Amino acid sequence: MITVGVDLAAADERSGLAVVEWSPGRAVVSDASLGASDAEIISAVRASDKAGIDCPLGWPAAFVSFVATHEHGLVSPPPPGAGAMWRRRLAYRMTDEVVRASTGLIPMSVSADRIGHAAFRAAGLLSLLSPDGAPLSRAGDGQVVEVYPAASLWGWGLTHRGYKRAGLASDLVSSLLTAAPWLSLGSFEPLCRRSHDALDAVVAALAARAAATDRATRPTAEQLPAAAIEGWIALPAGPLADLVDP
Predict the structure, then answer these.
(1) Range 113-137 burial, b when 16+ CB lie within 10 A, else e
(2) Checking DSSP bridges between strand 16-23 and strand 26-34, what pairing results, if any?
(3) Residues 6 or more apart in contact with residue 234 via CB below 8 angstroms
(4) Which domain of life is it from (predicted)?
(5) 154-177 pLDDT tens trace
(6) Using CA atoms, how far apart are residues 172 and 158, in angstroms rounded to an integer?
(7) In 3D, which of 213, 52, 69 has the Cα closest to residue 140?
(8) What does the pLDDT read at residue 3?
(9) At the N or C end, where does the chain have fewer CB atoms within 10 A?
(10) pTM
(11) In this structure, which topology does domain 2-58+94-243 adopt according to CATH?
(12) CATH 3.30.420 spans which residues of the chain?
């Protein structure tokens, strides 16, 4: 199996890309890079069995409706005292709330934070990846799944806060390799130690493996309609050791 991880940013130079090749008892990073272009991402994803993208794949349905309504000047203000909850539904997707409840981590708001710039790019990539113009699933049941490296690291018991500060990515690499002795970063280890974008891409590829092997959360039947529109963050549902075959 081949999994791909993409730490997607609005600009190529901040986008990380990693390819992991899996065999019984072993996983090898066969490629990792920074400055990933749309063409490079598309090529890598198409050659993979599963790709994890660290970026929202959709917007809150309430926000989409709000913008469409506001275009015609028909927005109704919230009732007194309900403003905070009203704004929260516009800012956060169902999957963001699920992650918050499960991990205590709060994903960036795709409609209110700068991550929206990367989401514009992600929407274009999904269109380019769609076969024969058929919409690509945003719920994670197709070739692409939305992932959240910090939440994946939390689930695996690894440092998930603060590692993006200068020099700390190297410490996380050491912890990751200790926790997953079957993982080889090969010649890309120095890059992962100095760049949290490259490291996040590797973690995204590991999370994609969890989703591909049914070791990650999936939306319930009740959650699926919203996930199909807004996207679904797949959280690893087991330890790192479960990712490799015995």
Answers:
(1) eebbebbebbeebbeebeeeeeebb
(2) antiparallel
(3) 52, 140, 145, 146, 147, 207, 210, 211, 216, 217, 218
(4) Bacteria
(5) 999 999 988 888 778 999 999 999
(6) 8
(7) 52
(8) 98
(9) C
(10) 0.95
(11) Nucleotidyltransferase; domain 5 (3.30.420)
(12) 2-58+94-243
